């Protein structure tokens, strides 16, 4: 499989704080990579650096061979919308949802390309097939949903366009074990042509639901934990 994401010597942080230290990482097309590490070791910061959401960064990030990294000393988010258009989809930690909007409106927010907007109805149907509990909640306000349902909305919104690289940050956070397993299994079952990185503290949840798991400790990669996929 060709390399879809190639990260070399990526450092990033916030103000004077350096969180990532010369990270190297390669992800192949079709691969689902689990990123494990304890709280505060830099998993979220790596995902933010891939979308230029840290306050500064340096190092190379190649997406499908094109350089999207480089040195940036100020200004989180200036290139983020361009990177999303280039094919990076994000389900951020802790949902980042709008409590006053309905499930349908959230999913429509994810349809940000012209093609996705034109075909949003069938895309929403597909999300309901992936997460059946959302179907009867189509017009419910997201603020009234359970944690598990909100997580499904957040991931569903990410899936409304075909991304090359999906970044899913701690899908199990705050969820009951059974619901976490359901969400993780749905992620594993998705037919994805690009690649997916799933950050997770609970390595057991990744077992059987990722092709490869890498550890992260104190802002550095800790090598492959192992190939734990089913396929
Ligand atoms: N916006 C920010 N400003 C300053 N420091 C931050 C910011 N976000 C994270 N940090 C710090 O960066 C370090 C790494 O945090 P990060 O969120 O990347 O870790 P993580 O492995 O994803 O853990 P978590 O599971 O809590 O998200 C921590 O020391 C954290 O306090």
TrEMBL record:
Location of the ABC transporter domain: 5-230
A UniProt-annotated Pfam family: ABC_tran
Nucleotide-binding among keywords: yes
GO annotation terms (biological process): L-amino acid transport
Keywords associated with the record: Amino-acid transport, ATP-binding, Nucleotide-binding, Transport
GO molecular function: ATP binding; ATP hydrolysis activity; branched-chain amino acid transmembrane transporter activity
Keyword hit for ATP-binding: yes
Similarity section: Belongs to the ABC transporter superfamily.
Protein name per UniProt: High-affinity branched-chain amino acid transport ATP-binding protein LivF
